[in-house]
Amino acid sequence: MKNLLLISLLGLLISSCKVEKKEPLPKKNNEMDNVTPEGNEAPFVWDGANIYFLLTDRFNNGDPNNDLNFERTDDTGVLRGFMGGDIKGITQKINEGYFSDLGINAIWFTPVVEQIHGSTDEGTGNTYGYHGYWTKDWTALDPNFGTKADLKELVATAHEKGIRILLDVVLNHTGPVTEKDPVWPSDWVITGPKCEFTTYENTTSCTLVENLPDIITDTEKAVELPDALLAKWKEEGRLSEELEELQLFFDRTAYPRAPRFYIIKWLTDYIHEFGIDGFRVDTVKHVNENAWAELYKEASFAFQTWKKLHPKEVLDDTPFFMMGEVYNYGISSGRDFDFGDKKVDYFDHGFHSLINFELKNDAKNDYERIFSKYNKLLHTQLKGKGVVNYLASHDDGEPYDKQRKDSIRAANVLLLTPGASQVYYGDESARSLTIKGAKGDATLRSFMNWEEIDSSAVTQNILAHWRKLGKFRGQHPAIGAGKHRRLSKNPYVFSRTYSQNEYIDKVVVGLDLPKGPKKLTVKGFFGDGTELRDTYSDTTVMVEKGSVYLDTPYDIALLELVE
Question: Domain count of the chain?
Fold first, then answer.
C-alpha cells in the first residue's frame, strides 16, 4: 500500500489522541443517514439501499488474459473451477449502466484477495478458490480477479455513478491446506475440532469444516509472521514495505501483534488505498464479537483518513458501513443472536446491519403481512439499525422460488419490503439455480446469463420489471427506510414516508391491481389536486376526491410526486 506511510502520518497528526482510546461504536440512532442533500435530490441511506451481490468470478469476464494463474489446471467438479469473471468485468457493466438501470446504489462482490493456489476435494468435487473465501494472502489481490489498479478504477467508476462499494472480507479462516498451500503456524490457526453449532464455544472456537484452518481470534498473544508469507513477500519484492507498514500500524494503535490485528490491518488497507465504502463480513458468529468492534474502529479510521486525503472524491458524509453474515439470523430475533447458552448483540459490536435469513420464508405470505411485520420490527426493536433482505444467495440451498417460476413476485417482495435489499446476480434475469451435475452450493453459482438477456423475450420482460421497480426504489429512500401504512385492502394500496431534516419522501404503491381501468385511494396521504406520476407506466394523474384513476395494462402502480 504505497500511500500508507503518508496516510499513517496524517492520521497521527489528525487524531493521535483519539485512536489511542477506545472510540465509541456507531450510535444507536440514524447516524448512518448522511446530511440532507440540496434541493429535492434523495439522500443515500444504507437502511434503504438496493445492493447488488455477485460472485466476482461468475459475473462478467472483462479481461480474458487473466483467466489462468498459478497453474490452476486440475480438473474440477461442475462449476467448481475459475470461469473468468473479474474486477474489470464489473467495471465494464458499471460503465454500460447495467447497475444504474436496476436502481442499484451499492455493489457487493465476493472477496478478491489472493486465493490458495492448489485445489481440494472435500466431498463435492475438486474445487479451486474461485469464490474468494479461501485466502492465501490478505495483502495481495488474486490475479484471476485482477490488479489493484483494476480495483482502484472500479471504485472510482462506481463513485462517479453514485454507487457505493462493499468489500467482502474474511477474518475467520484461511484457505484449505493443499500441496501448494501449507497450513499456517499453530499460533495462528487451529485445525480442529469441527464446529457443532450447539453452544457459543463450539461455534466460535472450532473449524467450520474439515481442512479449513480457523484463525485464533480470541488471543492477545503476539505472534511472528509465518515464514511462508515472509518468503512470498520477499520473492515478490515487497517484504520491507509490508514490514514497515505493519510497524506503523502497531505503533499507532498499540495493539498486540495477535493474529486478528494483523488481518484487521490488511483488510483496512483497502479502505486507506481505495476508499471502499463498507464491508460485508463473512462468518460473523464464528469469531469472538470483540474482534468485529475492533475491525469497525480501524475501518472507520481508515475511511475518515481516506476522505481527508481525497476531498474531491468524497460522495457525502455517510460513515463507514458494516453488515454481517450471522448465518441463520432472522429479523424476528431483534438485536440478539441466540447460541443456546449465550446471546450476542452484534449490532453493538460494529455492525449497522445484519443479513436477514427470514425473508425467503416470509415471502410466502401476502404482501401486507410481510410489509407490516418488517415495518414494525425495524421501527421498534431494531430502530436505528437495519437488515439486508435477500431471497437467493451463493450459499443458501433453499432460496425462495428456486425454480425461478415467479420472478415478478420475487421482485415485488424483495424490492418493496422495508429494509435494505440484496439482489443476487441473476435474480433480475431468472438465472437458473439448478444446474445439472453441480453439487452443493455450486448449483447456485453459474455464470451470469447474459446470452438469455440478449436473446430471450421472457428474460427481457422479467428484467424490465426488475428495472422499473429497482429504479423506483433507488430514487425513493421511503421504500426501504420509510414508514409503511396500508391505504386500501382491495385493491391493495400502501404508502411509505421517509423524512430526514428538511427532506421528505412520500410514495404510494399498488399491487395486484386490475389490468386496465383502476382506482387507487390515496386519501389522507396526498391531497386533492396533487399531481402524481405512475413511474411504472409513465403516466401522470391528478388526485381527485382522495383517489387517482389509471388506465394501464399493468397490475402494479408506483406513484411519486411530480416536482
Answer: 2
